[in-house]
């Protein structure tokens, strides 16, 4: 009987231990805050993990075959076998509810394991959750379990503290536990932060609430109810008013919950759009060992900024002169500081703020311009109804209502202006046409000024619109390049440049005076009746003929001067067809070449080289005149077509045109040009800001002269396959990251800026960063810019660039190539990666 009972107990015991279930396990650092683990079932042969993902409807994700779990104490990975609720063969989408539950089934994990890790072992994998507790592990500080987590002021809903395993968040700082003296949830917790100390007195309340304060007589009621669920926040009627632009800064700081060195992330990048220069400036915040980061950022108007890292990829809204503290890595974003409530309420309005691009892509191909415009207006109407409901229920305050209303309205305008671009994108998606295929069979709709009747002067010239996150900036961008107001072909003659130079007191050299005289004589000769008649009849044919045979002309130019006669000989010799129209043109051209006027013009056949030299020498003046012509044309057309007068918007567009040279191209304005520009700007802040940018550029150029860590190399005197190997020969034994770029390329510059911290981190490794550009990067700008780009530099000839562009199929820049230690190309099209991903790729080759 005893033996039977013992056998029964052993059977029960074996059944109990044959399955172990952990509900809502405690986790350490998570790189996927929107992904949570609800349950883990440990069985004899499998481990089942139940997940919940909370994201916007339509969010796409995949489950790689290399998804794994593992004992944190071991290296062996247990890979996923199957899934329930999601597909492992194709992409998955979050439904309309914004929540998706699913299970992943893995191999067996031993019951004795205390902590496990979840992650993706595939290249580029970035979903990781560390230190997932499989056993009940008490808080190492000694605080009771009920006190763990985030606590919100019961009166106003503000998040004011968070008790975690090794740290406490309090008053926008990260504190360590010094002494915990709690009994049944009552007592005190002493904290330390560097040389600061504070003691929090704790008293347990009813229904899970606590009273906490810095003295026993100043206790405040706290609840662990989510900050986003408390609707009684004291919303005020304060809104943004003019003047909206002011020179200031904002402090953005935060804590990465349960931060772990395993994440291999040491920095967070903050990208701030500068509407006056049109640039996006990148700032890098260093993450301390305890997960805290803080950075003071220049900010001259309230707006959304982008925060980028593998830990958090999103945005926050900053205000000049104010602070924001951000909890990163938790299930929901939490905030402290002066801009906290603003950010909490913007999250509550997140659904109405989001643009449903998927719906646009599904429907736009069936729309004409007018029906698309009606569609956009209908979307605005519905969104504004939802926004009014949020305001009436006091879910959001006056500021968030103001920001979101402007955002909805200006985003709709940007989308209406984007009709043709959106339609092309939808067409490419539907027909699976890659972006590098230029020619597509989609017919463009002809949009007249009547289509743009939504553009009005009060709307376009509204300075307060800058608070509308990025919507107003998008409208400005579309307006700048709107076909109806954009001067596509700008021609500044040598004579116009010479006039401008003389107005500025410049004395022309003898060579320049001779060039002007020769050009005048040449113009007189070209006005000969016979030549004018030839140009009138054959100008288009000549252009088409030259364009058609560009490659052949380049080959001919290597051995002799260009002439239609030499081109014709080459075509005949190689049996390349010449049309009747082209034959007539060539015959008439030969006849014209024998006239007395043509023989006189022969004297000026090399004038083109001198003209190019003149343009290059006076590139700054040329660019300035280009900018003036574009601005004047645009302003005139905006007034004529839409009755949009010169004002705030034209000031921004003009400043962006100018600052592209001043800031992006490191080409400062002269004192005279600066005064001239400032006098043409109506907004005083913008005029002063341009001057500030100009001074910063001058200082930067001077500072760059003292920079080290860059090398300007001579391109090897070789051609064909030997060219690239000749460049790589210098770096044999090292991994080489090759960057095709140009000084004028914004994405190139952003990419270079982004990896600055990675280069510094890997400066002692066997890795070389090689930068290749071509003649399109102006020499003066290039020389001023490269000292701040650590690495090996080559400014290639047009032919050398064309060869390498062909070799690596460079259809656009930036373009990256990875070369191994033996000099062999590992990846001819590396693509863009985060610093963390790129570091893994580079280290793998070492």
UniProtKB/TrEMBL annotation:
InterPro entries in UniProt: Thioredoxin-like_fold, Thioredoxin-like_sf, Thioredoxin_domain, Thioredoxin_ResA/DsbE_sf
The organism's place on the tree of life at top rank: Bacteria
UniProt keyword list: Cytochrome c-type biogenesis, Disulfide bond, Redox-active center, Signal
Locations listed in the record: Cell envelope
Domain Thioredoxin: 701-846
Protein known as: TlpA disulfide reductase family protein
Cross-referenced SUPFAM superfamilies: Thioredoxin-like (SSF52833)
Major localisation: other
Signal sequence region: 1-18
A Pfam entry, by short name: Thioredoxin_8
The species this protein was found in: Flavobacterium plantiphilum
């Amino acid at each position: 009987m005893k033996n039977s009972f013992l056998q029964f107990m052993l059977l029960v015991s074996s059944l109990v231990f044959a399955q172990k279930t952990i509900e809502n396990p405690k986790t350490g650092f998570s790189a996927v805050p929107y992904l949570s683990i609800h349950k883990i079932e440990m069985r004899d042969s499998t481990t089942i993990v139940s997940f919940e993902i909370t994201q916007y409807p339509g969010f796409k994700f995949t489950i790689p075959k290399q998804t794994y779990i593992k004992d944190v104490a071991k290296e062996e990975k247990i890979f996923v076998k199957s899934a329930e609720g999601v597909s492992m063969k194709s992409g998955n989408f979050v439904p309309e509810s914004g929540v998706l539950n699913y299970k992943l089934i893995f191999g067996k994990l031993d019951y004795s394991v205390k902590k496990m890790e979840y992650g993706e072992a595939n290249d580029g994998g970035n979903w990781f959750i560390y230190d997932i507790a499989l056993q009940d592990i008490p808080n190492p500080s000694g605080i009771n379990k009920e006190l763990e987590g985030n606590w919100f002021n019961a009166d106003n809903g503000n998040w004011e503290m968070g008790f975690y395993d090794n740290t406490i968040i309090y008053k926008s700082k990260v504190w360590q536990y010094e002494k915990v003296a709690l009994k049944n949830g009552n007592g005190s917790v002493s904290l330390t932060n560097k040389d600061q100390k504070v003691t929090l007195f704790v008293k347990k309340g009813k229904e899970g609430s606590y009273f906490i304060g810095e003295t026993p007589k100043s206790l405040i009621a706290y609840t662990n109810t989510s900050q986003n669920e408390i609707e009684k926040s004291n919303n005020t009627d304060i809104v943004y008013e003019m003047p909206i632009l002011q020179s200031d800064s904002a402090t953005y700081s935060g804590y990465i919950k349960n931060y772990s060195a395993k994440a291999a992330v040491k920095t967070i990048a903050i990208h701030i759009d500068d509407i006056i220069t049109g640039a996006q400036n990148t700032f890098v915040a260093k993450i301390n060992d305890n997960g805290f980061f803080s950075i003071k950022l220049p900010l001259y108007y309230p707006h959304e900024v982008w925060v980028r890292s593998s830990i958090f990829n999103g945005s926050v809204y900053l205000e000049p002169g104010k602070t924001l503290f951000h909890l990163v890595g938790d299930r929901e974003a939490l905030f402290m500081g002066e801009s906290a409530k603003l950010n909490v309420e913007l999250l509550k309005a997140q659904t109405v703020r989001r643009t449903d691009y998927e719906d646009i892509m599904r429907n736009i191909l069936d729309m004409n311009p007018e029906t698309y415009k009606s569609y956009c207006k209908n979307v605005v109407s519905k969104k504004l109804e939802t926004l009014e409901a949020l305001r009436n229920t006091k879910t959001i305050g006056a500021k968030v209502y103001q920001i979101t209303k402007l955002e909805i309205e200006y985003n709709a305008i940007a989308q209406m202006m984007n009709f043709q671009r959106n339609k092309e994108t939808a067409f490419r998606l539907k027909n699976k046409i890659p972006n590098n295929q230029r020619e597509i069979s989609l017919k463009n709709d002809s949009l007249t000024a009547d289509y743009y009747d939504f553009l009005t002067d009060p709307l376009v010239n509204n300075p307060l619109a800058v608070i509308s996150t990025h919507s107003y900036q998008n409208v400005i961008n579309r307006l700048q390049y709107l076909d109806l107001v954009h001067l596509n072909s700008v021609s500044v003659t040598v004579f116009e440049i010479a006039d401008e130079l003389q107005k500025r007191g410049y004395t022309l050299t003898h060579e320049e005076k001779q060039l002007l005289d020769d050009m005048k004589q040449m113009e007189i000769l070209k006005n000969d009746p016979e030549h004018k008649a030839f140009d009138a009849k054959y100008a288009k044919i000549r252009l088409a003929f030259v364009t058609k045979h560009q490659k052949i002309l380049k080959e001919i130019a290597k051995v002799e001067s260009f002439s239609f006669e030499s081109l014709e000989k080459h075509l005949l010799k190689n049996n390349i067809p010449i049309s009747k129209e082209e034959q007539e043109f060539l015959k008439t051209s030969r006849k014209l070449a024998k006239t007395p006027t043509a023989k006189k013009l022969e004297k000026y056949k090399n004038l083109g080289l001198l003209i190019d030299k003149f343009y290059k020498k006076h590139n700054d003046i040329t660019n300035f005149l280009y900018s003036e012509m574009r601005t004047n044309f645009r302003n005139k057309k905006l007034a004529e077509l839409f009755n949009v007068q010169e004002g705030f918007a034209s000031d921004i567009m003009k400043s962006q045109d100018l600052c592209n040279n001043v800031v992006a191209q490191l080409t400062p304005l002269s004192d005279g040009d600066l005064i001239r520009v400032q006098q043409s700007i109506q907004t005083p802040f913008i005029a002063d800001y341009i001057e500030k940018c100009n001074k910063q550029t001058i200082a930067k150029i001077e500072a760059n002269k003292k920079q080290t860590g860059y090398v300007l190399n001579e391109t090897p005197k070789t051609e064909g396959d030997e060219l690239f190997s000749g460049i790589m020969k210098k770096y044999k034994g090292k991994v080489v990251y090759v960057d095709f770029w140009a000084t004028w390329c914004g994405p190139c510059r952003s990419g270079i800026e982004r990896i600055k911290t990675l280069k510094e981190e890997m400066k002692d490794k066997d890795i070389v960063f090689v930068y290749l550009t071509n003649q399109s990067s102006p020499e003066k700008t290039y020389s001023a810019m490269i000292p701040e780009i650590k690495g090996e530099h080559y400014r290639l000839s047009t032919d050398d660039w064309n060869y390498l562009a062909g070799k690596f199929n460079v259809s656009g820049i930036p373009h990256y190539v990875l070369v191994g230690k033996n000099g062999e190309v590992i990846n001819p099209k590396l693509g863009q990666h985060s610093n963390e991903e790129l570091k893994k790729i580079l280290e793998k080759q070492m």
